[in-house]
Amino acid sequence: MEALPPAHLRRILLARPRGFCAGVKRAIETVEWALRHLPTPVYVYHEIVHNTHVVRSLEHRGTRFVEEIEEIPDGGVVIFSAHGVSPQIRLQASAKGLRIIDATCPLVTKVHREARHFARQGRTILLVGHRGHQEVIGTMGEAPGHIRLVIAPEDVQRVDVPDPSKVAVITQTTLSLDETEGIMEAIRERFPKAAQPAKEDICYATTNRQKAVKAIASSADLILVLGSRNSSNSRRLAEVARALGTPAHLIDDVHELDPTWLDGVKTLGITAGASAPEHLVTEAVEVLSRGGDVKIEEVAAVKEERVHFGLPSELKRWPSSPDG
Ligand code: SF4
Fold it and tell me: Which atom of ligand 1 is nearest to the CA of 307?
């Protein structure tokens, strides 16, 4: 990347909140705990969080990320990622005699509980989510015969439901609020009696980061979202900005930035997905403002986040744990 910052760049708006959420922090701290207390390699089922920089850094320190439980030696330890796993994966792990450390975000665990609850009531569960996403695979595994995946209002029209009066709806935690509203409307229309969880499934971090990107999008000529392409909430942030008419790019770090994107950009907005470390934002701001007359402003859209999740309870009982 050369010739940065461009002569016409005057302002960088930083969305707040951005970056790490409580579930991501907890998942990373869990792997760090394992790296301190257990022999390496430390095995993690699936990427602990969807961020290339986080994954590479943990790999470098002795973590091995696997996509199959079979890859882990019998009698070893497995950490489940923040996205959660299906009961089938837990069974596979137990069958191999693995000790489980569960770093599933508590807000994903809540959705799993809801799936089991609605399935016990004999309801058909409409899961609003993206096919193939790790979280969706895990949630579907909780009630395979009961769940139907929907991601657009048209899916709601088409979905096959044996008893329309016995329907429930749950959602992936990292969806776009605006898009989901259209689908919920279609569900209310076709299934007016559909049961819903007492508390929204789209999590506080997703909601707040989308509000924050909206707060800067209308004043920015371009939005950069720091995050990896397989990060659902990061992709939603770029989509939310684009839906407001502001061009947006999702990049892993500032080195992926194409300088032509900045042509004519006077005000640049920057945010980061819930799995993207803050140092990527700091580096981007540094590179984009270096030597230029660029004003940096942080725009707070919501109150300071104070959510914190403690480490998985099994660590307290771990034989070598100082907390045990
Ligand atoms: S984005 Fe939400 S559900 Fe996902 S890890 Fe963070 S807090 Fe948990």
Answer: 7
